[in-house]
Amino acid sequence: MSRLDRCYNIADMREIARRRLPKGVFEYLDRGAEDEVALADNREAFKRLKLRTRFLVDLSERDMGTELLGARSELPMAIAPTGIAGLTWYEGELELAKAAAAQGIPFTLATGSVTSMEKIADVAGGRLWFQLYMWKEEELSYEMVGRARDAGFEALVVTIDGALGNNREYNKRNGFTIPFTISPRSVTDMALHPEWLLGVMARYITTTGMPRHENYPAKYAQRVTTGTGKERPMRHTAMTWTDIDRMREFWPGKLIIKGILREEDAVLAVEHGADGVVVSNHGGRALDAAAPTIDVLPEVVRAVGNKTTVILDSGIRRGSDMVKALALGADAVLTGRATLYGTSVAGQAGAEKAISILKTEFEKTMAYVGCRRVSEVTSDIFAKPVTLGYAPRAEAAE
Fold first, then answer.
1. What's residue 147's pLDDT?
2. What is d(CA 76, CA 74) in angstroms, rounded to the nearest whole number?
3. Packing angle between helix 337-368 and helix 10-20, nearest 10 degrees?
4. Are residues 247 and 230 in contact, defined by beta-carbon separation less than 8 angstroms?
5. Which of 215, 176, 192 is nearest to 87 (CA)?
6. d(Cα 109, Cα 156) in Å, to the nearest integer?
7. What is the end-to-end Cα distance of the chain in Å, rounded?
8. CA distances for 397 relative to 104, 173, 278, 369, 378, angstroms
9. Beta strand pairing status for 71-73 and 66-68?
């Protein structure tokens, strides 16, 4: 039995990823900011929501797919942007993108990925979204977005919650930062994980060389190690809604704003041309005092749910979490860590299995609450009344 065969849930994949990856790499993808309160709260908020079962419903015909931003997705789910994928597996972003395409869901490529957007489009195909951090040198941001447009990416995901960076002390303790600095501690960490060292880093070095930020403009397309060039791009700390207006004029496809935690920001996003908003606290990796996204979701849906696509991010580990998000008004969810664990275990095969696990759990939970399709999921599945402040899905559709 292979190790992938021994993975029955996302937690199993996480444990194998923890053993396979160097500590620095694993904790970079797995942990949160500061005291990791937001990371824990995201999960606890989902756990607090209990469901009521409903039986004696004809379940012979079921459809777990949905229309998402104008096209069908086989699940109400998309892959979140995760810049570490290419260091968990050789060409990990490409493996993850191929898995998403095979499973019929969108894939979001992160700004800081080490596989070029052109290669992702040519090899993986499927529904592709590109995530952007706006830089102080705005013309370089537009250069990247222009490449995504020309490569055929259908949506641009502008992340707005990272202007001043983050505070993740464990990265510093592990000596794992971007740019990655070679030190006795990091060398020892890698040497203690020979499968990763040979299968990932050695493979890069003997083929394409040390991984680089392939989607950065030439000025910043440096190796992930410090290398010879130390100049790094600076985030756009003066970014305002005017920048969103300009990007809306430049970008011809779907525009998604990621990092919304207030209903007034959701309203502004719609007013400034967003086709979708992502309710996100960056997976607990940014502000450690941030509210759990599932708690904020109802007010965002109340404000803009009938005007734009609302996507829930942060904390998805089970298919039941997806059902709860739909019941609170989300159109879909983003998954980041869950599919990264799968990629870390077995590349494309591991990512596909992670998606399949979530899909199976989602379908079973849907059946338990008496729903055969996404459109049937409403807030009446909760064991206790939930204050929504918006029309339930069935009423809103009328």
1. 98
2. 7
3. 170
4. no
5. 176
6. 10
7. 51
8. 25, 51, 21, 20, 11
9. antiparallel
The H or E element containing residue 273 is: none
Amino acid at position 368, single letter: Y
- Round to whole Å and give the CA distance between 363 and 68: 18
Homologous superfamily, domain 10-169+232-397 = Aldolase class I (3.20.20.70)
Q: Which long-range contacts (CB under 8 A, 24 or more apart) does 31-35 make?
A: 31/168, 31/170, 31/285, 32/168, 32/283, 32/284, 32/285, 32/288, 33/166, 33/167, 33/168, 33/284, 33/285, 33/286, 33/287, 33/288, 34/167, 34/168, 34/169, 34/288, 35/288
Q: What is the pLDDT of residues 329-360, one digit of tens each?
A: 999 999 999 999 999 999 999 999 999 999 99
Coil/strand/helix, residue 292: coil
Cβ count within 10 A of residue 9? 16
- The domain spans of the chain are 10-169+232-397
Catalytic residues: 282
**Residue appearing with tokens 């599932």:** 294
Kindly report whether the global pTM for this prediction surpasses the value 0.90.
yes
User: Encoding tokens for residue 88?
Assistant: 């968990």
Instruction: Give whole-number Cα distances, 87 to 116, 156, 190, 215, in Å.
Output: 14, 23, 12, 15
Contact 261, 299 (CB under 8 A): no
pLDDT tens for the chain, residues 1 to 398? 789 999 999 999 999 999 999 999 999 999 999 999 999 999 999 999 999 999 999 999 999 999 999 999 999 999 999 989 999 999 999 999 999 999 999 999 999 999 999 999 999 999 999 999 999 899 999 999 999 999 999 999 999 997 777 778 877 777 676 667 777 888 889 999 999 999 999 999 999 999 999 999 988 888 887 544 557 788 788 899 999 999 999 999 999 999 999 999 999 999 999 999 999 999 999 999 999 999 999 999 999 999 999 999 999 999 999 999 999 999 999 999 999 999 999 999 999 999 999 999 999 999 999 999 999 999 999 998 776 555 555 544 44
- Residue that is written with structure tokens 């719609």 in the block: 270
| Chain centre to alpha carbon of residue 109 | 9
Q: What is the greatest pairwise CA distance in the chain?
A: 67
With tokens 């990932």, the residue in question is: 200
Q: What is the total residue count of the chain?
A: 398
